[in-house]
Amino acid sequence: RKEVEQDPGPFNVPEGATVAFNCTYSNSASQSFFWYRQDCRKEPKLLMSVYSSGNEDGRFTAQLNRASQYISLLIRDSKLSDSATYLCVVNRGAGGTSYGKLTFGQGTILTVHP
Amino acid sequence: DTGVSQDPRHKITKRGQNVTFRCDPISEHNRLYWYRQTLGQGPEFLTYFQNEAQLEKSRLLSDRFSAERPKGSFSTLEIQRTEQGDSAMYLCASSLGSAKLLYEQYFGPGTRLTVT
């Protein structure tokens, strides 16, 4: 079983739609959670960190459920420019320990069409 | 531009040759990471440094791979005797060592390696 699992999609939605992505992680010791966005043949860019209380940044809302080991990303009022691959990312680090690696899901492809 | 930079951006080499990539992190970041990404997959962790110390290495990092960060600033990743399976995007990332932002990593544009 992969450590971080995502539905690869693709998700094809019209402009203005609301779309949700889900992700599960297997390691209950995971401490930090993120969503990254990656455009075709570009590097991943940090979209948002995911906090236990949930957090919102404009049209984007991220939720974390530690009990179910589940992370979600909601995009409201989709724009053409939201078309990208969305990567669910988990880190096992805790405090000052040496766990630095990020573990990425496969990514979910989103295409927003006019 | 004060982001992470990588050089070269593209490298085509013949099987069996050695290649070396360079990464310059964001200047105030003391942690530096290397990842590899193949088509249709998320990046996979290879190794990371805190200052000049290499703290963790993935099992993906075979004996043909070596990474250094001699002065705690830029880092190099060398692949010896390249194989076709080494063809991938090699990504470098850096992060601050503060407790709050410890794990927010910022990526460079990557080096795309093609082994023929």
Coarse structural class of chain A: mainly beta
Quaternary status of these chains?
Answer: heterodimer
Mean pLDDT of chain A: 91
For the record, give the distance between the C-alpha atoms at the N and C termini of chain A, rounded to a whole number: 37 Å
Distance between the ends of chain B: 33 Å
- Biggest interface, residues from each chain: A-B, 27 and 27 residues
Count of runs of 4 or more consecutive helical residues of chain A: 0
- Ranges of chain B where pLDDT stays below 50 over 5 or more residues in a row are none
Helix content, binned percent of chain A: under 10%
The amount of beta strand of chain B, in percent, is over 45%
Summarize the main sheet of chain A. 6 strands, mixed
Regions with little confidence, pLDDT below 50 for 5+ residues of chain A: none
The tally of beta strands of chain A, per DSSP, is: 11
Main sheet characteristics of chain B = 7 strands, mixed
Backbone CA Rg of chain B: 14 Å
Order of helix and strand elements from N to C terminus of chain B: EEEEEEEEEEE
User: Which word captures the global form of chain B?
Assistant: globular
Order of helices and strands of chain A: EEEEEEEEEEE
Description:
The complex is a heterodimer of chains A (114) and B (116). Chain A has 114 residues and is mostly beta strands. Helix content of chain A is 0%, strand content 53%. In chain A, strands 2, 4, 5, 9, 10 and 11 form a six-stranded mixed beta sheet that branches. In chain A, strands 1-3-8-7-6 form a five-stranded antiparallel beta sheet, with no helix packed on it. Chain B contains no helices and eleven strands. Chain B has strands spanning 5-7, 10-13, 19-24, 31-37, 44-50, 53-57, 65-68, 75-79, 88-95, 106-107, 111-115. The model of chain B has no long low-confidence stretch (mean pLDDT 91). Classes of the chains: A mainly beta (114), B mainly beta (116).
